[in-house]
Amino acid sequence: MGDAAGEIPAPVSTARLASAADKVRALLRAALDIALPRLCAVCREPVEGEGLCASCWSKLSFIPRPYCERLGIPFVYDPGPGILSMEAIADPPAYNRARAAVRFDEISRVLVHALKYGDRLDLAPMMGRWISRAGREVLAEADALVPVPLHWRRLWTRRFNQSAMLAAAVSAASGVPMVT
Ligand SMILES: [Zn+2]
Questions:
Q1: What is the CA radius of gyration of the chain?
Q2: Ligand 1 mean position to 13 CA, how many Å?
Q3: Cα–Cα nearest to 124, from 133, 111, 142
Q4: CA pseudo-torsion sign 28, 31, 35, 37
Q5: What is the SS3 assignment for 170?
Q6: C-beta atoms surrounding 99 within 10 Å
Q7: 20 to 30 A Cα–Cα from 10, which one of 23, 73, 103, 147?
């Protein structure tokens, strides 16, 4: 008969295994950060700091005033304070005010897709700051931020809700609490 301890494996706590797995994952992540520099979310060039290079940043079309006070769409000329766009007058939306940080063009489209489909979740804080700047007047009167819910099946396959990630970033930048 052999040594019983040699034949029967010693029980290993699952908590200890999980903690070891976490440590391995953290090490791998740290190694990947060193081996793979962060890339610009649009042109894929290596970039310092947040997810956009200077060239792509300069091509972003932020929306300054003048814009329609209801829809937030930019005007090509200043029609005066409080003037609404023809679109807002002809087909008034169900909401009082909407604001957008940037025009939806070839640069912002790539950013939105990168966040939405999850390969660049690191973009959320930067985009949240843009949104909170564009919506500062609306946020100043807001009691809470409510992200658009994601259907449970989509949440299950995607594993995150990009609207909640942006709302959390806007909440951090504006101080308005997020409610889910
Ligand atoms: Zn770039």
A1: 23
A2: 47
A3: 111
A4: positive
A5: helix
A6: 18
A7: 23
Instruction: Burial-class residue 50 by CB neighbours within 10 Å (0-12, 13-18, 19+).
Output: middle
**Terminal-residue alpha carbon distance, the chain:** 62
Higher pLDDT, 131 or 20: 131
Measured in Å, residue 51 CA sits from the centre of ligand 1 at 8
Distance separating alpha carbons of residues 25 and 21, to the nearest angstrom: 6
The confidence band for 4, taking pLDDT boundaries of 50, 70 and 90, is very low
The Å distance, Cα 107 to ligand 1 centre, comes to: 9
pLDDT given for residue 6 in this prediction: 47
Spacing, Cα 177 to ligand 1 middle (Å): 32
For residue 128, give both structure tokens. Answer: 């949240």
